[in-house]
Write a structure and sequence with these properties.
Elements (H helix, E strand, L loop, with lengths): L2 H26 L1 H10 L5 E4 L2 H36 L35 E3 L5 E4 L4 E3 L9 H10 L2 H11 L6 E5 L4 E4 L1 E2 L17 H7 L3 E8 L7 H15 L6 E7 L3 E3 L9 E2 L2 H11 L10 H18 L6 E8 L7 H7 L6 E8 L6 H10 L5 E3 L5 H12 L1 H6 L5 E2 L3 E2 L11 E10 L3 H5 L4 E10 H6 L3 H4 L4 E5 L5 E3 L23 H4 L7 H7 L4 E11 L4 E13 L6 E7 L5 E4 L4 H8 L4 E3 L6 E2 L11 H10 L6 E2 L1 H26 L9 E8 L3 E6 L28 H7 L7 E3 L10 E9 L8 E10 H11 L19 E7 L4 E4 L9 H4 L1 H9 L3 E16 L12 H4 L1 E3 L28 E15 L5 E8 L2 E9 L5 E7 L15 E4 L1 H6 L30 H16 L1
Parallel strand pairs: 8-9, 8-12, 12-13, 13-14
Antiparallel strand pairs: 1-24, 2-3, 3-7, 4-6, 5-6, 5-18, 9-10, 9-11, 15-17, 16-17, 17-18, 19-20, 19-23, 21-22, 22-23, 25-29, 26-27, 28-29, 28-32, 30-31, 31-32, 33-34, 33-40, 35-37, 36-41, 37-41, 38-39, 39-40
Subcellular location: Membrane
GO cellular component, one term: voltage-gated calcium channel complex
Membrane topology: Single-pass type I membrane protein
Amino acid sequence: INVLLVSRVKLWASAFGGEIKSISAKYSGSQLLQKKYKELEKSVRVEEIDGMKVVKNLSKKMEEMFRKKKEAIRRLVEAAEEAHLQHEENPELQYEYFNAVLINEVDEEGNNVELGGEFVLEPNEHFNNLSVNLSLSVVQVPTNMYNKDPAIVNGVYWSEALNKVFVDNFEKDPSLIWQYFGSAKGFFRQYPGVKWHPDEHGVIAFDCRNRKWYIQAATSPKDVVILVDVSGSMKGLRLTIARQTVSSILDTLGDDDFFNIIAYNQEIHYVEPCLNGTLVRADRNNKAHFREHLDKLFAKGIGLLGDALTEAFTILSDFNQTGHGSVCSQAIMLVTDGATQMYDDVFAKFNWPDRKVRIFPYLIGRESAFADNMKWMACANKGYFSQISTLADVQENVMRYLHVMSRPKVIDHEHDTVWTEAYMDSTGSIIKGPSLMTTVAMPVFSTKNETVSLCGILLGVVGTDIPLQELMKIIPKHLLGIHGYAFAITNNGYILTHPDLRPLYQKGQKRRKPNYSSVDLSEVEWEDKDDFLRNAMVNRKTGTFSMEVKKTVDKGKRLLKMHNDYYYTEVKGTPFSVGVALSRGHGKFFFRGNVSVEAGLHDLEQPDVALADEWTYCNTDEYYEHRSLSQIQAIKLYLTGRKPLIKCDRELIQEVLFDAVVTAPLEAYWTGLALNKSENSDKGVEIAYLGTRTGLSRTNLFVVQEDLSNQDFLTAEDKEGVFNADHFPLWYKRAAEQVPGTFVYSIPFGGNENKSVVLASTAIQLLDDRKSPIVASVGIQMNLNFFQRKFWTASRQCAALDGKCTISCDNEDIKCYLIDNNGFILVTEDYSQTGEFFGEVEAAVMTKLLLIGSFKRINLYDYQALCREYAGSSDSGHCLSHPFSIVKWLLTELVMFLLEFNLYSWWHVDLSVKGQGKTMLVPCDTEYPAFVSERTIKETTGNIDCEGCVRSFVIQQIPSSNLFMVVVDNKCDCSSTLPVSMDPIEIMYILVKLKFQKDRKRPESCHPFHPEENAMECGGAAGLSAPLTGALLSLLATLFTR
């Protein structure tokens, strides 16, 4: 490449760099702000943040918050048990209650329908603006149950006593949201009262008894083997009912339970052959995997139940000895259309006299020829017998086993508190907009004398939801620095809250990913290959850990590399652990400055000032009269009110006042620029903005709102561009990683492809050394055309006196590009390429830049991605025997990488060409690249050989920026080079995941059996024939005399 061009490019780069920096510095006011903080350098105190202290304080606050919720439900348990004790069952009882579906409904004559009644509802902000009744609860009864069933009417009648407690609880702790009682009879009482709406089929399928919180509170952790009869007699409808029964049993298993499914005829078939002889955790992925295999069962041959029972007992015993399972209750579920004998020899060998494994036989079909044998099995092994003759009977019959398994807990009268993992409120009619929450629940027992001695009766479960936003509010964000964050996990290692958890398919959509509630910490902190951090937290340890991390920002397209220090500890009284991550360097320092309250408030109340929406400067939720206050009003009340009741973060407020005073001169400076007509005449600069470490921001518009090229910037629409519950704005984060005094430029990637602006921002440091905290960031939004014109003007310059340049970017034989440090194009002659990745446009040049080390490719992993799959192409049936065949790579063809950033426009690609018809989005794991420039390159030249034709290029850094000018000669056709793509590829290792059980901490309490339990209540016992009863009694006699 000729020397002239190299020197010319250098000239253009420095001309453009100088021009754009002076515009950015002038309009952002960066030098003025730097000076203002510098003046105060001597009067402020810089401190290193003690991460351990921060995490311990956070844990204490969380513990306190959770304790309050726990007290609220304990009061409900006491009230419910007392009310039930006083109530006499009355099968004739008539009682008009408020049915959640029927309230305010009228018949054709305009009269209230039965169980409807007039029910006052008012919109309430605290409940997402839903219309609720704060003095009464409503009762929901599943569609498949009779509203006036005497058992339900009696339960509803005595549980009215909870209304008063619901109201008291809400007054004591106004941060409570839904409180409820789920009855063992199937009804669900919910406070505050709210109207429920059926789905399009007129059905409300919600049954509180198969919700996780109910099952977890009612039973102890369990190991379960499900035996399904697939002999010839099970053909047709029976097999369909059997599948549904197994599926319903799976619904009742949770993350603390373990299971396997065996199909038997004359042979034993593990439904998943790769998992023979063991049990796996009943998490969402494993259950879904087994469900797929259920559809492949077909009936033939004869059924040898004895062998199947032997296998089931053997697995339970072996697995229990490994210590990996629930190490608590054990059960065998038997789904069959009959048993020709009693198999007492098998039970005598494996289960008597202790009867540690309960047997739950489900007789499929209408015939009851073999019912007696199956009833006997249940009664002889502390189980329960059910007959299921239609699909409609499945749910109700499967539920019964839970109440049998809960007996020891009831007799022990142990009110264990349970906490669920993070989930989204699924009562769609209830909460608009998805918000993650955890539920704390506690069982309610009958305290009547006869029930305790008999078989222990579970009345139901009470619970309350805790939105995880409540947790976010107590995180001291100002102490965590620009890249720092807090996170919490459950005893199973699942994320409760973490800034990288993405539970939805796409921003703005309400669709949840199927496995959002079981994302493991190791899937977001994936650089920790040995799970050190995860396992220490699961085992409730307190300690520290550090590692290099790569965090993606800007919809996953850009990369920040940093070194994180993690601090973690347990949250007492809960199964959760909490951690804090601080990034090394500026992220470990905080400084304190002081100003008078008067000066601070005066500057804080200026119209151009805003405070971070989701940060808690003051707690305005605690008292009703504070709810309508903005954070700034709350701060004012706190500082000037007489005896204000409001609780605030004194330290944060002190610093936010300080920042308000230091940044105040910028307002006058910006106003001066805006008023000066000779400045910014072509309206190229549209907005100036700043943010400080305390979440304070100021903005100034240089053009009227309507003329803004990007209306979303700095509004709540622009999630990554504002201070948020778990992150600093993107422009702030990226500026912090630039060399101080230089600007970072970028075109925002918008969902609406908003390519019409360029953002420039720079960080303001307090001191000149490496330990300096970054105190603020300032920047501007420019119109893209304005920015590009500056570039083309600079690239026409030359040293010729007559102004006639021999070479410029206008020439046909060269192409000029301006790209950023992640390889995205800001300026090019072909306007449609703006914002695209350079490797897609100039593949040969990008390949060479990677080769010579000017840019680096970094591989990243996303374990919450979504891929397109052709419906009906699932072939996970065969067992992969060779370990290496397990990791198979699927071509990008199939992958739709929706990492919520909707990559490029191939969202709209018509994928139905394969003839398979429909495609669907399924959760998957992907690997994808990000590209970063090496800071050391100031200028580089290179030659590329394109099929014998040599093409040359120059890359030159633009001074004081993150930009590079790339000039390529145009004389060769290099289009045959494969594009350097940012598309992800899917990684497949389903079976490795199934086999590989990560560390988890078992729940503390376990109630597998109780010596006083009456096992005669075993389902249909009334119908036992005389000889059977005799056989059973003699058997029991021998058991108890042994």
